[in-house]
Amino acid sequence: MLKRPTALVLLASLSLSACRPSATPSPAPAPAPSQAPQPQTDARYSGTFSGGFRFPEAREAAFGEQAMVASNSDLASQAGLEILRAGGNAMDAAVAVGFALAVTYPFAGNIGGGGFMVIRMADGRTAAIDYREIAPLAATRDMFVDATGKLTDKSVVGHLASGVPGAVAGMDAALQRFGTMSLAQVMAPAIRLAREGFAVDSALFRSLSGAKQRLCRFEGCATFFPSGEAVAPGATLVQRDLARSLQLIADRGPDAFYEGPVGDSLVAEMRRGGGIITREDLAAYVPKWREPVVSTYRGYTLITMPPASSGGITMTESFNILEEFAPLPAFGSAEYTHLLAEAFRRAFIDRNAKLADADFVPVPRDELVSKAYAKTLAAQISRTQASKTPAFTAGRPEPEHTTHYSVVDGKGNAVATTTTINGGYGSAVWVRGGGFFMNNEMDDFAAQPGTPNMFGLVQGEANAVQPGKRMLSAMSPTIVLDKDGSVLLVVGAAGGPTIITAVAQVILHVIEHGMTLADAMRAPRMHHQSLPDQIRVESVGFNEQMITALRAMGHEVVTQQGIANVNAIMRVPGGWHGVKEPRGSGLAIGY
Ligand code: DON
Fold first, then answer.
1. Is 402 a catalytic residue?
2. What's the pLDDT band for 37 if we cut at 50, 70, 90?
3. Which of 80, 104, 358, 387 is most exposed, with the fewest beta carbons within 10 Å of its own?
4. Residue 535: how many CA atoms within 13 Å on its side-chain side?
5. How far, in Å, from the CA of 382 to the mean position of ligand 1?
6. Dihedral angle sign, alpha carbons of residues 307, 310, 315, 321
7. What atom of ligand 1 comes closest to residue 400's alpha carbon?
């Protein structure tokens, strides 16, 4: 329920004004670190949200004439900038950011997890790399179900929760194919940050403090809680073991991780804690180049991630459905939120039942992304009445423990990367000697088909555990091309299933509602994932009037603090705008 009085006035104003071009000129974005002149974003207007909105600043975009990096960590964004300034391209910088996040944002940055990257080079080449974790060879369908048939928490915490990490192999493969620098060069900032340490900020302190109980069940306690409490804000956090692992990887390449000393530490940790990842698992890991999902929405082109992520197909299906409604109702109206919910509901019904690792399960990709199929789904949607998804038990709201970063360079190359260890600090297992957290990605499988996972997602047999299989993801790194074929947006998010809907909304805010990136990012978000059958809305952003209207249409509506964590870049006249998630930590920085 909305408790704060400001919330009551909020969406009244939002629904009236945010969908129209502002009469006043767009305010200039905040001065960029480079102090470069700020362009007016003529074609975009600044949304005039109520003063009570919890992300009040409409001036949050950083500007760069040439290049831009946006991530959830200031230091990781700066690592990317350092590489760009040294002559690296967007891929060099992206890999630098990825390794730096493993040091400065241990919450989600990682070498013990995996991710997805969507790439669009200035020469028109597009690519997608899947470095999702895979289930260990000894994994079994029911490994997380106890003798009484009850789902245990072993897919979430502890040594069994981990899939075989793909991050190191994936980033290296992407760098080899599209980068211009060596692994050692792009890893240098990360190694320096781990070896020499960095000043802990209050965000890291708070996040560590909140995770203390879980983390101190395992080996990371001494590093992150040296005196029994989380490293204090301002204190220097040195990660010697991690520095050693990173240096080994920089010197010897991914083999150091998959067949060498870092892998040995990982396997020893698994043995110590009853995990099942072996040397054979590590040696067998390969990242996979995939054909990106390419679709159109009102003349714009979306390039996004295919399975083992559900992101691209689910988003495309949603967009195709929405395209049938032209024009969409005004941003901020109950009618608009209803239509989004109905489109997302249908796309998630397909997602949860039909999508999975396409190397293991036949996935009807072409059908799901076809405009003809979307037309049949759109025809079932009433503009005034909610439909119903067959009922299941509601799951828990998701935490936000993935991280997305976006990079563009001066040539127009663009890289969108989302990486995760799933839950915050993953399985909480920290590899002794290796210095990094392991993922708890096994929970992204349907550990017990039909039973909600930690995101409340109810998924089917297609996504059941099988050795060597990739668990279905929602990660949606996406690049949007303008009508002239040039990069318009580089975007992606953390937030479990809300990744898909939040990325879709930021894109819609820009291309359907004409917002500036800053406003598209701070605009209130909603979410629907078919089950639980409810619309989730950000509590300070959707007023009682809108919620009442949605309920009258037959929707269950629940409110929550924030939805998803997006980092995005948008092309503007004369350069790029970068915006880090207004709801979270991070930095967009360019030059
Ligand atoms: O791959 C996925 O869909 C999840 N492991 C993502 C987890 C996530 O975004 C958690 N943070 N919010």
1. yes
2. very low
3. 387
4. 30
5. 31
6. positive
7. 12
Per-residue CA distances from 586 to 73, 104, 138, 525 (Å): 4, 11, 38, 19
Per-residue pLDDT of 145-189, as tens digits, reads 999 999 999 999 999 999 999 999 999 999 999 999 999 999 999
Report the distance separating Cα 516 and Cα 359, nearest Å.
39
Mean pLDDT of 436-446: 95
**Marked catalytic residue, from 402, 417, 418, 516:** 402
Q: Strands, DSSP E only, in 421-505?
A: 478-481, 487-491, 493-494
pLDDT at 1: 26
- Please name the residue whose Cα sits nearest to atom 1 of ligand 1: 473
Pocket residue to mutate for ligand 1, from 420, 473, 525, most atoms within 8 A of Cβ: 420
Measure the CA–CA gap between 560 and 496, rounded to whole angstroms: 15
Q: How far apart are the C-alpha atoms of 46 and 519, rounded to whole Å? A: 6
Average pLDDT over residues 114-136: 98
Q: Report pTM.
A: 0.90
List C-alpha distances in Å: 62 to 12, 222, 418, 577.
29, 37, 21, 5
pLDDT in tens, 257-286: 999 999 999 999 999 999 999 999 999 999
> Residue 441 CA: which ligand 1 atom is closest?
5
Q: How far is the CA of 150 from the centre of ligand 1 (A)?
A: 24
Residue 400 has what pLDDT? Answer: 54
Q: What DSSP assignment string belongs to 314-377?
A: HHHHHHHHHHTSSSPPPTTSHHHHHHHHHHHHHHHHHHHHH-S-TTTS---HHHHT-HHHHHHH
Beta bridge pairs of residue 60: none
In angstroms, what is the span from residue 494 Cα to ligand 1's centroid? 6
Phi/psi at 210 (5° precision): -65, -25
Question: Among 436, 419, 522, 517, which Cα is nearest to 477's?
Answer: 419
Distance 588 CA to ligand 1 centre (A): 22
pLDDT at 355: 95
Ligand 1 atom closest to Cα of residue 564: 12
User: Which ligand 1 atom sits closest to the C-alpha of 497?
Assistant: 3
Q: Is the pLDDT of residue 372 over 50?
A: yes
How confident is the model at residue 59, as a pLDDT? 59
| pLDDT in the model for residue 453 | 82
Say how many Å lie between the CA of residue 242 and the centre of ligand 1: 23
Q: Which amino acid is at 341?
A: A
Residue 76, token pair as written in the block:
């990781």
For 226, the token pair is 């040296």
Check residue 87 and give its pLDDT: 98
Residue whose CA is closest, atom 10 of ligand 1? Answer: 401
Distance CA 131, CA 50 (A): 42
Take atom 5 of ligand 1 and give the residue whose Cα is closest. Answer: 422
